[in-house]
Structures are given as structure tokens and as C-alpha cells.
Amino acid sequence: MLLLEVRNLSAAYPDGVEVLHNINLCVPQGEMVTLIGANGAGKSTTLRAIMGAMRARGSVLLEGRDISGIATPEIARMGVSMVPEGRGVFPGLSVYDNLRVATTPWAGRGQKLDDDLDRVFGLFPILAERRNQLGWALSGGQQQMLAIGRAIMARPKLMLLDEPSLGLAPNLVEEVFEKLKSINEQGVSILLVEQNAFMALEYSSLAYVIERGVVSPQRESSALLHDDGIRDAYLGG
Fold this sequence. Notes:
By secondary structure, the chain is of the alpha/beta class. Helix content is 38%, strand content 25%. The chain has 2 domains: 2-79 and 156-234, Rossmann fold (3-Layer(aba) Sandwich), CATH 3.40.50; 89-154, no CATH class. The strands form 2 sheets. Strands 3, 6, 7, 8, 9, 10 and 11 form a 7-stranded mixed β-sheet that branches. The protein has a 4-stranded antiparallel β-sheet with strand order 2-1-4-5, with helices on one face. Helix 8 (170-185) links the parallel strand 7 (158-162) and strand 8. The model has no long low-confidence stretch (mean pLDDT 90).
């Protein structure tokens, strides 16, 4: 079953320069899918267009429903959450309040936070220890954990992640990917944009390559890892 399907999606910057050219991709239910490509290829724009954060032509279907043109908050209420590049942590809020903000899609239904907090703190124990600290006081790695935890608090069916390893020390990169693997195994589908192509392909099941706003057909991640052209272009040979 396809959870997300993108059909013939095109998008342009405000100055009219087109950055996405009729791209097609999908995320099957329960899978982790990665989109790799060079800087400026259109990876982040793809996520923003899916999330309704920029105008685009074409169709974006969530569980078969066309969500094209729907506002970002409504898409979040439908079960899509995004971890933006740069983490987007609210520096003036505590760790706890950063997490609580993300419950907006469902908190008005009288449901409690406890189970969701336990889930996040189980994945990232350091956040439990620092729940009363301000977001700006966390290290870069801890802020990334907080950004991912905040996305989990929205109870998503699908998580979109934009460069989650950016700026992290190598030992933290593997830890973040292990957490993403755990989240995926708990039933959350993931679409991952990542410049660390090796790690992204190691942990995902399916992958696409985007070059100059054009997306290649879907392939198994393991096949791309052993593709000489991909290795030369994105994996350091």
C-alpha cells in the first residue's frame, strides 16, 4: 500500500526559476525511503512542496487522498510531520515545551501527553534529563534529537526529514540513524533527504536520486550502494 504518492510535481522559486520538473516518487506504508542528490538539486524543495510550504503543480496523495493545495497545518493534522534542516528548535522554550508544541494536531481532543512523552524519552533519554532546559542550551546533537522527538509527538503516519545528520559528529550520525530505524520499525513511514548518501542508503529500503530537479526511477537502496555511478558521484568512489 502506498502511503504517499507524488505525481508530476513541479515547483518554482518566486523569481520563476523552476526547481522541480515533473517528479514522481512514492513511500510505501511502513518503509524508509531516501532521496539523495547534490546541494541545490531540489531535495529540500521536494519536502517543502509535499508539506504544503510552497506552491507547486502536480499531485501529492496521502493514503490516496489528494492533499495538493492544502495548508501545512492541515497536512500536519492528517498525520505528516517534518523535521526541517537546521532543526527549527524554539530557543526560548524548554525541551518539554518544544515537545508539547507539536501536540497541536491532536491535543484538543482531550488526550494526555504521558505516553507520547514516555516514547520520546525512551528513544532519547538525554531529553528526559534536560526536559526543563531551554532549547538553545542543548548541543547540536541534542537539538536534532529534540527536533525528531517533536515530530514524533505529532503522532505522524509519515515523517519527512531534511538533512538530519547535518553538522553532527560522526558518532552522533550513526546514533541518529539508529533512532530513525527504531521509529520506522514502530510503524512510522519515513521520507529522508540526506547528503550523507552512504548512511541514508544503508538504513533505507528504497531510494531515489534527484539531479537538477529531476528524479530517477525508484530503486532498492542496496542496489544503489553497489552502483558504480552512484558510488563515484555520492559515496566517494
